[in-house]
Amino acid sequence: MADVTVVLPTYQESQTIASVIEAARDAVRGRDYSILVVDDSPDDRTASAVRNRYVTDDRVRVWHRQGDGLASAVLEGFERADGDRYVVLDADGQHPPRRIRNLLYRLDDGADLAVCSRHVDGGEVAGDWPTHRRLISWGAETLAQLAVPTARKLSDPMSGYFAVEADVADPVRERLRPSGYKILLELVARCPIREIAEVPYTFEEREEGSSNLGPREYARYVQHLARLTVPARRDSVQVVTEEVNHVDG
After folding, report:
1. What is the pTM of this model?
2. At how many degrees (to 10) do helices 45-53 and 17-27 cross?
3. Whether pLDDT at 77 is above 80
4. Distance from the CA of 14 to the CA of which of 21, 28, 149, 210 falls in 20 to 30 A?
5. Domains, the chain, ranges and CATH?
6. Residue-wise pLDDT tens digits, 116-166
7. Of 219, 213, 183, whose CA–CA distance to 9 is shortest?
8. From CA 224, how far away is CA 147, in angstroms rounded?
9. Are 105 and 185 in contact, with CB atoms under 8 Å apart?
10. Does residue 244 surpass a pLDDT of 70?
C-alpha cells in the first residue's frame, strides 16, 4: 500500500508524459508512492511511451482503455490506485508537478481535499489567453458556483489539479458520476469533506494539442451541474488558502 498514488489521465500525451512523470516522481520523493497513467488515446503511443520507459519500475503503471473523458479516467484511476491519498493532474504540461508537494503538505495539515488554484494570491495563468477563452472559463466557473453551493467558497472550482484523501473519496466512489473532463465538482458535492485547502499555482500554456472545452463538452458540463445541484446543498465546508510565501518553487 502506497502513501500516495498520482493519477494522470491522458489523451494523446506521448510527447509530454515522460517529463510529467519524472517531475511528479521528484515531487513525491521521500514518500511511498505509485504513479498510474489512465490513457484514453485512440492509439497506443502514450501507453507505449510509459511502458517502454518504466518497464522495470513497478511504481509506474499504465492502463490503456477506450473511455469517455478525462473525469471518468480519473475515477478509474481511483478504483485501480493503491495509495492512501490520490493526486490528480493533467499530463499536457499545464499543471506543474512540483505543486504536488504543496498539495500533500496541506493534507498532512488536516485538509480532506487540497486544490491548486489559478485565482488566489500567487496564482496566475501563463501567456495571453484570447478573450473568448477567458469568457468561456469565467462562464464555466460562474455556473459551477451557482449550481454547487460549496463551489462558491472555491476560487477555482474548475481546477483539474488536486489531492484528496482516499478515505474521503472511496466511500462515495460508486455514486460519483463525472461527465466530460471535470471531476472536482463531483468530489466537492458528494464527498464528506470538512476542510479544503487552496494552493496557488501558475497554469502553464499547453505544450501540445488543444483545449478540451468545446461546444459538446460545454453542453455536457451544464447537464452535469444540473445533476449536482441537490447533493451539493451543504455549507459546512471550510476553505483555507495557503499563503504565497509557503509555496515551494
Report:
1. 0.84
2. 50
3. yes
4. 28
5. 2-246 (3.90.550.10)
6. 999 899 998 876 656 656 666 666 666 666 666 676 678 888 899 999 999
7. 183
8. 10
9. no
10. no
